[in-house]
Structure formats: C-alpha cells, structure tokens
Amino acid sequence: MTATLSSASAALPDFMRRDRAWHPPAFAPGYKTTVLRSPKCALLSLDQGPGEKTGPRFRADMLHELDNDLISNFAAATGSEGLAIGERIIVHGRVLDECGRPVPNTLIEVWQANAGGRYRHKKDGYLAPLDPNFGGCGRTMTDADGRYFFRTIKPGPYPWPNNGSDWRPAHIHFSVFGEAFAQRLISQLYFEGDPLIALCPIVHTIRDEKAVDRLVAKLDMGEQRPFDALVYRFDIVLRGRQQTFFENKREGM
Fold first, then answer.
1. Which residue is catalytic, options 118, 139, 173, 214?
2. What is the pLDDT of residue 245?
3. Distance (Å, rounded) from C-alpha 12 to C-alpha 99?
4. Which of 23, 151, 171, 239 is catalytic?
5. Is 37 an annotated catalytic residue?
6. For residue range 87-102, what is the model confidence (pLDDT) as tens digits?
7. Mean pLDDT in residue range 206-231
8. Which of 27, 31, 48, 107 is spaced 20 to 30 Å from 60 by Cα?
9. pLDDT digits (tens, 9 = 90+) for 63-88
C-alpha cells in the first residue's frame, strides 16, 4: 500500500472530498444498536473553532516503556508467570496522510478483549475468565517515518445479543489523535483469514468490500519473531482515496 500511495501522490489534489457512498449509513437495522442511536434529523456542518483546533499535544517521553507491550504491562506477577496468556502477536504499520506521506508523532491508543474474548470491564459478563496479567489496553506513538508497533495477544471472538447470539470477530480497537481532541479518530482492525468477519452485522454495514479489506491486518511472515510471535501489518490512512474507515469521523481527519 505504501509504495502505491507514494508513487501516486504527485497526481493527487491537496483536498480529498469524501465519498459518502464509501461509508455505511448511520441507520443500519441489521446492527440493532443503530436503530436507537442513529440521528433522526439531518446533520449540520459547523465551522471549527479553537476548541476543535488546539491541543493537547503528546510526546514520546510521556509514555511508559511498556505502554506498547500489552503482554507484560499489566503483570500481576514477575517473570514468565506475569505474562498474558494467549497467542503472542505484534501489530505494526504506518500512519499516512491522503498522499502517502508519513504522519509522525501521532498517539495511537489500543484496547481489546483477552484471549478468551472477555474485556476487563465491570459490565462485561461473558463467561470467559479474566486473565490476571492482561489489562487489555496500551498506547504508542509513530516515529519520524510514521511507523508504529505494539505487542499483544490475539483477542478471542465473543458473542453479543444483536440477533439472538451473533459473534464478533477477533478485533482490536484503536484511536489516532491529531492536534486536538476533536481530531481523534476511532476504528477497529480485524485479522486476515477470520471467517467471522463475513458474518459480523457490524462489518455488514460497510457496503464496499474494499473498505472492509482496509480494516483487515495482513499476516506479515517476513517480520515474524521466530519462536516468539506472529506479526500483522496494518497501515492507517487518515483521508483520501485509500482512507481507513473510522467510526466516529467518517470523512477522516
């Protein structure tokens, strides 16, 4: 993806008008939560003020050295006894703008269920056990080339009462911060080869298969950690023709 975007960047305009057909409708009856939560009136477009354009800014030295290591950043014990249980993976990639240019010094937050498909949240009543050594959240920042990575365990799928008992595919939620809180973008990534992706009512709200594909982290065997962890590649594109789909700001940053 990176090479394709870079080679085409000179031909792209400065402003990428969003394609409304690319994103799912706010009201999607198959995803029953939208029936009550979708807006009932036409949306308004408002000019941005200082509150939407200013701070805070994050620096790499504000993060703890284990913030991007979900396998060990919630350890309740020491040594191997304090490591999270599950399939060890690394997720890496780049944050790019609409012309394929790297976006440096960008804070990425991630949160997820454990290997059994359960979140460390008081309202998660799924019968899978909690892992005492897994908190399920972390953060990292992109470097000068827009690169990021974090280490974690592959989350498990879990049932949810959307239509009897639907199942969510394994996924990791993530947010990307811009230059202000109003520029925070939120989405989730899935994993290549997961058969539950095609069955998920939330995924079905995205009509374009190419948009769904850009939410799928690809297995990157060339970067595997032998006898340690599989690696997945997931590039995040903020806006433009190759944009990653974001749940809360569908036109991108």
1. 173
2. 63
3. 7
4. 171
5. no
6. 999 999 999 988 889 9
7. 95
8. 48
9. 999 999 999 999 998 998 999 999 99
The one-letter amino acid at 147: R
* pLDDT single digits (tens) 185-214: 999 999 999 999 999 999 999 989 999 999
Nearest-angstrom CA–CA distance, 173 and 184: 13
- The most distant pair of C-alpha atoms in the chain lies apart, rounded to whole Å, by 56
Residue 45 has pLDDT above 90, yes or no: no
Active site residue 158: yes
Which residues lie below 8 Å from residue 241, measured CB to CB, with a gap of 6+? 12, 16, 98
d(CA 175, CA 153): 18
Entry pTM:
0.86
Please provide the average confidence, as pLDDT, over all residues in the chain.
Answer: 88
Q: What are the DSSP E strand ranges found in the chain?
A: 88-96, 107-112, 137-141, 147-153, 158-160, 166-168, 172-176, 185-191, 216-219, 230-233, 236-237
User: Does the active-site annotation cover 126?
Assistant: no
119 is a catalytic site residue: yes
Q: Going by C-beta distance under 8 Å and a sequence separation of 6 or more, which residues neighbour residue 169?
A: 157, 190, 191, 194, 196, 197, 199, 200, 203
- The fold of the 59-237 domain, in CATH, is Protocatechuate 3,4-Dioxygenase, subunit A (2.60.130)
The catalytically annotated residue of 139, 151, 168, 239 is 168
End-to-end CA distance of the chain: 19
From the candidates 31, 92, 119, 139, give the one annotated as an active-site residue.
119
Catalytic, out of 148, 158, 190, 232: 158
